[in-house]
Structures are given as structure tokens and as C-alpha cells.
């Protein structure tokens, strides 16, 4: 009887082990899924407010976090515009992010191309604008609210005309200036187009001048960026 019981127990363990192995083999590895990621919201910023070290510094932040997320093989670009200044022309965010399509860390497509991304039918929401870790970014109603994303862009993805600062001195200032922000959760104080805009909702403001880390947190931000794979 003891031998029979042992035999039954060992048989049960073998079946359970086999089932576990099959389940593990069937499940797609998280790293492989992240390797297909072509869009994310940064889980954190460099920590110097809107002073990102210019476009190069912002792109480097995207590349660094993409590497941590398992998608380092791609060329990553921050969705940021710059304004014409010091003899240099403006740069449009929409022109530096590739052609698409773009999908998040969970494999959900947020836009098929540049026109779709800037159209009313894009699939960019709080549930799809995930970090490189596949996590939802805190939005309106969450503590802390982190839905303000640095863009410096108009709704169509183009730069603002020179004059009023909308890019914190082209992403080199953490004191005076202002940066245009988008809402990753598509929610704001009102139910209107600016409040629902993912890339052009309102400018930053605050006691330090508009561009510090503390200023960005004042209106519900944290110095976060949209990152797109350009290749």
C-alpha cells in the first residue's frame, strides 16, 4: 500500500511539473514582448525639470530607459519640438519620431503612422500610454498626478513660432521659461480639447519660473517624456 501511495504521489508530481513547464513555454517572455515596444512614456525624468540637456539629452534619456526595458536595439527619439533661436531653425516633434506604427510594452498599437498619431482616432489613453516597464502613468485623480508630459509642441506636432517660450529655452532651462505640456491620461480641469490633448494641453508654470522640477510637479507633472522608436 505504501509503495502504491508513493507511486501515485510521484505520478501526480510528474504531471504537475509537466503542466507547469508547458505553461511556462506557452507564455511569451516579458523581455521579448518589451523588445517589440516602439513607444513608451518615461517612468522618470532626468530630475532637472525641463532642462533635459537639449534634444540630445532627451533622446539619451529615452535610449537609457529603453535599454532597461529590453528595447535598446532601436533608435529612440523624444517627442519634443524646439523653437527657432540663435540662428537655428525650429524642429518639429512629428518629424523626428519615424513613420510608425508604434506599440506599447504590452503590444497595443497606439498609432499606425504620424497622421494617425495626430488625428482624433489615435489609441493613446491612460491605459495605453504605458511606461517602458509596461506600467500605467499616474493621472488626474491619482496621487501623485504625473500626467503632464513635456512636448513643446502644437496639437499637430509642429513647433511654436519664435517669441513666447514654449520649450524652456529649447530644453536647457530649469528656471525661467515655460514648456507646453500634454496630458497622457487625456483628462484635465475641463471637458474640452486642450484638456484632452495628449501633446498640447497647457504651458508649465510655477514659483521658480516655470521650468524647475518643482514647477512641473505643481501642475501635475514630473518631467516625463514620450519616447518613440524612429526605426
Q: Can you describe what's shown?
A:
The chain has helices spanning 2-26, 30-35, 54-68, 114-117, 168-171, 193-196, 213-218; strands at 39-41, 76-78, 102-103, 109-111, 148-150, 180-183, 202-203, 221-229. Strand 3 and strand 4 (109-111) form a beta hairpin. The chain is of the alpha+beta class and 231 residues long. Residues 1-32 have low confidence and may be disordered. The protein starts with a helix and ends with a strand. Keywords: Signal. Residues 184-215 are annotated as: Disordered. It comes from Bradyrhizobium rifense. This is Lectin.
Number of domains: 1
Compute the average pLDDT. Answer: 88
Measured distance between first and last alpha carbons:
66 Å
User: What is the fold named in CATH at topology level?
Assistant: Mannose-Binding Protein A, Chain A
Radius of gyration: 22 Å
Number of strands: 8
Q: Which regions are unreliable across 5 or more consecutive residues at pLDDT < 50? A: 1-32
CATH superfamily, called what?
A: Mannose-Binding Protein A, subunit A
Structural class estimated from helices and strands: alpha+beta
Largest sheet: 6 strands, mixed
Amino acid at each position: 500500500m505504501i509503495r502504491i501511495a508513493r507511486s501515485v504521489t510521484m505520478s501526480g508530481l510528474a504531471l504537475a511539473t509537466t503542466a507547469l513547464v508547458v505553461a511556462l513555454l506557452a507564455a511569451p517572455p516579458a523581455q521579448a514582448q518589451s523588445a517589440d515596444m516602439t513607444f513608451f512614456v518615461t517612468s522618470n525624468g532626468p530630475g532637472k525639470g525641463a532642462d533635459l540637456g537639449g534634444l540630445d539629452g532627451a533622446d539619451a534619456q529615452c535610449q537609457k530607459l529603453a535599454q532597461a526595458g529590453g528595447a535598446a536595439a532601436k533608435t529612440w527619439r523624444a517627442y519634443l519640438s524646439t523653437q527657432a533661436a540663435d540662428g537655428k531653425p525650429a524642429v518639429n516633434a512629428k518629424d523626428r519620431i519615424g513613420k510608425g506604427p508604434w506599440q506599447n510594452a504590452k503590444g497595443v498599437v497606439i498609432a499606425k503612422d504620424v497622421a494617425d498619431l495626430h488625428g482624433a482616432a489615435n489609441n493613446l489613453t491612460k491605459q495605453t500610454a504605458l511606461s517602458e516597464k509596461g506600467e500605467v502613468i499616474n493621472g488626474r485623480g491619482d496621487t501623485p498626478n504625473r500626467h503632464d508630459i513635456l512636448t513643446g509642441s502644437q496639437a499637430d506636432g509642429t513647433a511654436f513660432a519664435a517669441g513666447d517660450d514654449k520649450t524652456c529655452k529649447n530644453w536647457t532651462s530649469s528656471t525661467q521659461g515655460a514648456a507646453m505640456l500634454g496630458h497622457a491620461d487625456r483628462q484635465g480641469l475641463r471637458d474640452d480639447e486642450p484638456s484632452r490633448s495628449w501633446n498640447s494641453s497647457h504651458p508649465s508654470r510655477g514659483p521658480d519660473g516655470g521650468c524647475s522640477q518643482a514647477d512641473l510637479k505643481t501642475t501635475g507633472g514630473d518631467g516625463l517624456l514620450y519616447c518613440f522608436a524612429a526605426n
